[in-house]
Automatic annotation (TrEMBL):
Family (UniProt): Belongs to the binding-protein-dependent transport system permease family.
PROSITE patterns: ABC_TM1 (PS50928)
CDD domains: TM_PBP2 (cd06261)
Record-given protein name: Carbohydrate ABC transporter membrane protein 2 (CUT1 family)
Subcellular location: Cell membrane
Keywords attached to this entry: Cell membrane, Membrane, Transmembrane, Transmembrane helix, Transport
Species name: Cohnella phaseoli
One example of a Gene Ontology biological process annotation: transmembrane transport
Membrane topology qualifier: Multi-pass membrane protein
GO annotations of cellular component type: plasma membrane
Start and end residues of each ABC transmembrane type-1 domain: 86-276
Keyword Isomerase on entry: no
Pfam families hit by this protein: BPD_transp_1 (PF00528)
Ranges annotated as spanning the membrane: 20-39, 85-109, 121-139, 145-170, 196-217, 258-276
Length: 291
């Protein structure tokens, strides 16, 4: 209580000039960080003469939706319906994210709260695996998927996502902060391990799996073209990102549709991040445990 009073007194003694200076500093940082997003939105509605103008224009002067019309024209010429690409993208993103969160959480719970032989060794292996980039593991992953007979299927993308160790590490670190007394009290009341996991542990670590949802969804949404080119050869199984990548490779003639594609690809990750971020902040402020 004394500490709070000291902080309030120190806050009241700060001058208005310092407050204004801090506000201007934060406003400048916000403008700098939002500049790429603002430029992407304006570029998507620029006509071709403004896109190729020199010096480049940051704000559109004559907005138009011709870039989006050209994009629809490109998709109308394809023998695979655009709705099929959208279905593939959302199916892989949703199933991959949900599966990764559930598997990572279920594997992290015994590592964090159950004592068994070689537990420390297993966790050290998990930490060691974080040192390897996807470029190093892509050959073993391809060989494994090929041996399992999952090439050219949804599973070729979903299985590696389910086995990502970043989610396991994140969930394990959060679950370790849960008091053992809380779990022991639930066991005394007759709760099973599954009930403790779903009704006690998972609600408490909600900030962790909400953050994991952001990482997993962003990875699946933005890296779909890279992953699908490795494992998927059928055009009917490709994602929207893979198709947009093909459009971007069309050269200068498709500069307008590429600008529209860039905006469309940003909408879903940004929307999910904004919605989930508010939930994370609310959960962190109200999910603390009291002694």
């Amino acid at each position: 209580m004394i500490r709070v009073k000291q902080l309030l007194r120190r806050r009241l003694n700060r001058s208005w000039s310092v407050d204004i200076l801090l506000f201007l500093l934060l406003a400048g940082v916000a403008v700098f960080m939002s500049a790429p997003l603002v430029y992407t939105v304006n570029r998507a509605f620029m006509p071709l003469d403004e896109i190729f103008a020199f010096p480049p224009r940051f704000i559109v002067r004559n907005p138009t939706v011709q870039n989006f019309k050209d994009l629809l024209g490109i998709f109308s010429d394809s023998w695979v319906p655009f709705s099929r690409y959208v279905f593939n993208t959302f199916f892989i993103a949703i199933v991959g994210t949900v599966g990764h969160v559930i598997i990572a959480s279920a594997a992290a719970y015994p590592l964090a709260k159950v004592k068994f032989p070689l537990r420390g060794l297993l966790f050290n292996i998990v930490v060691l695996s974080l040192m390897f980039t996807p470029y190093i593991t892509q050959v073993p992953n391809y060989m494994t998927i090929s041996w399992l007979g999952m090439i050219n299927s949804y599973w070729a993308i979903l299985i590696p996502v389910f086995g990502m160790t970043l989610g396991l590490y994140l969930m394990k670190q959060f679950m370790e902060q849960i008091p053992d007394a809380l779990i022991e009290a639930a066991k005394i009341d007759g709760a099973s391990e599954y009930r403790i996991f779903w009704t006690i542990v998972m609600p408490i670590v909600k900030p962790a799996w909400l953050t994991l949802i952001i990482f997993s969804l962003q990875n699946l949404w933005t890296n779909g073209s890279v992953t699908s080119h490795k494992y998927i050869y059928s055009e009917q199984l490709r994602t929207v990102d893979a198709v947009f990548g093909q459009i971007a490779s069309g050269g200068i003639a498709r500069t307008g549709p590429v600008a529209a594609v860039t905006l469309l690809m940003m909408l879903v990750p940004i929307t999910v991040f904004i919605v989930t971020q508010s939930n994370i902040i609310q959960t962190m402020s109200s999910s603390g445990l009291k002694d």
